[in-house]
Amino acid sequence: MGTETSELSSLLRGISRPRAKRPGDGRPEATPAGASNPQKPAPKPAKVRIVGDGLSSTSKGGVETFTSLAENKSLRVPQWLARGAIACVGEGETLTEIQRHAIPAAIEGRDLIAVAPTGSGKTLAFLVPSVAIAVRAKKGEKTKALKRRRSSGASPSDGDGEDEVVAAGSNAVSKGPYAVLVSPTRELAAQTFRELRRLLSKTPKNKRLRALLLSNADSRLQDGGEDSGKREKVKRIRADIIVSTPPRLSQAIEAGLVRLSKTRMLILDEADKLFSDDKFLENVDAVMTACTHKRLRRCVYTATLPETAEELLRNVMQQPVRITVGERNAANSLVKQ
């Protein structure tokens, strides 16, 4: 993946981008005075198109509710995570179309290109599998750490406590992150982080995950480059899930404050915006290059995605599944979730 990934920025720069809309573009024409204005018919159910080989029946057929998601033995989604998702929705527990198919596909380990209208529930569609994978990865790391301690004759209780995952050296950094969520703006990153906290609100005390909004650490990252003591303090910050903008995460990687070698889930949210800015492309390139785990899942979520961009993405993804809800590049103002 390294060589192909390093070329992502230069490849995507050649993509033709749609011109900005002029005032009035896309607006319906005003109804002439005296003319009838019949009521619009009810919208048709959104079409779902799934393209990809080797999909499970669960991913193809979809999951109807968050409760049934937790009851599916092959997905191994914790009950508390399903309850957290229901808390995020606020009412009901029926999944939206993108959630029904994208959540199981991502949990099952598939690289994913998910295209769905704005307001169709994409945030939960990537937060739920991100948390599920982080829980699974952290449990696996803790098991390995306990085996190493036992084989070395150390007591299982040695270490920093329950959140200890691997032995920490003098230059220890985050034990994770196991999931990294990249958003194009600070506002969107903060919004995603708030939703993540709601999703984690039902987590049992003995299974809590450490989540970090990296944009909140601006001053610490800047100080870390000047003062070695402060930098060591930042290095010791542990996070299982990180939410960040591309520039901030790229800066943290370059400074050696964050390592993504254990990251199992990389989420690119609002990919159309990430790919429309050359600087973002360089940042995303650096992030993808830093994610070296052999079981990394790369998942892209967007409302619009040019075909040329998708073709190039497939060069740095492993047999990705493409899930499209509705018409390509359409918007949806009817779905509130």
The name CATH uses for the topology is: Rossmann fold
| Number of helical regions | 14
What is the 3D shape? globular
If you average the pLDDT, what whole number results? 77
Count the beta strands. Answer: 8
Strand % is 5-15%
Terminal CA distance reads: 35 Å
CATH architecture: 3-Layer(aba) Sandwich
Give the topology string: H per helix, E per strand: HHEHHHHEHEHEHHEHEHHEHE
Major sheet attributes: 8 strands, mixed
GO molecular function: ATP binding; hydrolase activity; RNA binding; RNA helicase activity
Region (Disordered): 1-54, 142-164
Keywords: ATP-binding, Helicase, Hydrolase, Nucleotide-binding
Family: Belongs to the DEAD box helicase family.
Write a brief caption for the model:
The chain is α/β, with parallel strands linked by helices and 337 residues long. It has helices at residues 2-6, 8-12, 57-61, 66-71, 79-89, 97-107, 122-152, 186-199, 218-224, 228-235, 246-254, 271-274, 278-290, 307-313; strands at residues 48-51, 112-115, 179-182, 211-213, 241-244, 265-269, 297-302, 321-325.
